[in-house]
TrEMBL record:
This is Putative HTH transcriptional regulator. Pfam families: HATPase_c_4, SLFN_AlbA_2. InterPro entries: RecG_C_sf, Schlafen_AlbA_2_dom, Schlafen_AlbA_2_dom_sf. Residues 19-137 form the Schlafen AlbA-2 domain.
């Protein structure tokens, strides 16, 4: 926090007519138990009021709200043989990141205690949760209506709402974010004045109001619409999409193209997909009548897998971001974070996203498919292009999706054939149909009149792997369904 911002914050808090649930004024009065109760009460009250912070200020007269200075020095306080702040932290549960800051205000020294709102559970002091009602600090459980509202308002920490850059002017907001792109992608008319632009960005949580007519840019606003992610801190800048193309099928091959993304996802998404498509060689696809020249990988599959990597990544993994790697025989798309859905069930189960606000806005802007339909289209397009089955693989702290270049059935491994069979059974099931020998022959490009036994072998292998099962036990010819049906 800057000195200037803290002075403006103190002035804004002092401009209120009296103490309230989120602001407490004191001169020099300090009692450890009193501060502990205030931290519990005001943290809970802030969440009830849907505010991020509450504040206690030493050095302000509680009747006139005038800065009068204080002799209180929090870093010199002890309780028994413990440093006060450590003592306080050990008595608050769950722990909150409270902060004491000394503000050298022009009218005198002020000590500012910033108390963050409860996020995962009511905050207790010595195992008792308190709440703030006006300037009183009663026990929370004595007020069941407020307790219920607190529970209703408590939500886990969301990365999107955290602040990427604080206390900046309106002009800085408009310089750092590509606001015309926001209005274009959300199909809104660009407002004619600065006030309307800021209101639009604020409505979608891209910015929030700070003190003294200043603004904050949220992580959501930065990661989607930053003109240059390098203008933000290093942790956010590393979330840019990295693209690498190799002249071979492994990372030891020569790197032919490399781009480290610096634009926000919404600004750079279309450019990345187009750039990648332009690097892809042509593939001859045999249609019902004609041979057609098409790109090596279907664009819908590329778009959806990249969008999934952006949406479902774990933003809290520091030093890592989405990566797209193009090899001679495959395209790998990796994002940080272990997936929240088992890889075998990603096709049929609704996705679980760590970044719901980001996902919702990207879908609204048309940058990815509607929820639950994206991976279906990836599998269907791979089948249409008669590509090997895409692979979804969870690593220790990352998720990787792989599209493979065209390969004949004869050149596919047993595992690839089984994976394709399982995915085909899922797609058929989701379409209200059943996989049969004939449909699997079509998926692999096998002539059902000449070589149906090849598909039968794959089906038997998938049965042995417990990935599929007969749709009807007493009717073997009725087809097959995924194991989980």
């Amino acid at each position: 926090m800057t000195i200037e911002r803290d002075i403006v914050l103190v002035d804004e808090l002092c401009s209120q007519s009296a103490e309230n649930a989120l602001v407490e004024f004191k001169h020099n009065n300090f009692k450890p138990e009193m501060v502990g109760k205030l931290c519990s009460a005001m943290s809970n009250a802030a969440r009830i009021a849907q505010k991020d912070f509450a504040y206690v200020l030493w050095g302000v007269d509680d009747e006139t709200q005038q800065v009068i200075g204080t002799t209180f020095e929090p870093n010199k306080q002890t309780v028994g043989n413990q440093v006060f702040e450590f003592w306080l932290s050990s008595r608050l549960n769950p722990s909150i990141a409270f902060e004491f800051r000394v503000v050298e205000h022009p009218k005198g020294k002020v000590v500012l205690l910033e108390i963050p709102a409860a996020t995962s559970a009511p905050v207790s002091y010595d195992n008792i949760p308190y709440v703030r009602i006006g300037s009183a600090t009663p026990k929370l459980l004595d007020y069941p209506d407020r307790f219920q509202k607190l529970i209703d308002n408590i939500k886990p920490f969301t990365w999107e709402k955290a602040i990427a850059k604080s206390f900046i002017s309106a002009d800085d907001v408009l310089e750092l974010l590509d606001y015309p792109k926001y209005f274009k992608l959300t199909q809104q008319r660009l407002p004619e004045n600065k006030k309307g632009i800021l209101e639009g960005l604020e409505a979608d949580l891209l910015i929030t109001k700070d003190v003294g007519e200043h603004w904050n840019i949220t992580n959501l606003g930065a990661i989607l619409f930053a003109n240059d992610l390098q203008q933000f801190d290093a942790a956010l800048a590393r979330k840019g999409v990295r693209f690498i193309a190799y002249d071979g099928n492994n990372k030891a091959a020569i790197v032919t193209h490399r781009q480290d993304g610096r634009k926000g996802y919404a600004i750079g998404f279309e450019g990345l997909v187009e750039y990648l498509n332009n690097l892809l060689p042509q593939n001859e696809h045999i249609g019902a009548v004609f041979r057609e020249q098409q790109k090596l990988y279907p664009e819908i599959a590329i778009r959806e897998l990249i969008a999934n990597a952006l949406i479902h990544q774990d933003m809290t993994v520091r030093g890592a971001g989405p990566q797209v790697e193009l090899f001679s025989d495959r395209l790998e798309i990796t994002n940080p974070g272990t997936p929240l859905v088992h890889t075998d069930r990603m096709i049929d189960q609704p996705p679980r996203s760590r970044n719901d606000v980001l996902a919702s806005l990207m879908r609204r802007m048309g940058l990815c498919e509607e929820q639950g339909s994206g991976l279906d289209k990836v599998i269907i397009s791979a089948e249409l292009f008669q590509l090997p089955a895409p692979k979804f693989q969870a690593e220790e702290n990352s998720m990787q999706a792989t599209l493979y270049a065209p390969r004949s059935f004869a050149n596919m491994s047993i595992d690839e054939r089984i994976r394709a069979c399982y995915q085909h059974a899922v797609i058929k099931y989701l379409s209200g149909e059943r996989m049969k020998n004939a449909s699997l022959c079509e998926r692999f490009g096998i002539d059902p009149q000449k070589s149906p036994a090849q598909a039968t072998k794959v089906i038997n292998a998938a049965l042995d792997a417990n990935l599929i099962k007969p749709a009807e036990q007493d009717r073997p010819r009725a087809g097959y369904a995924p194991w989980w049906t």
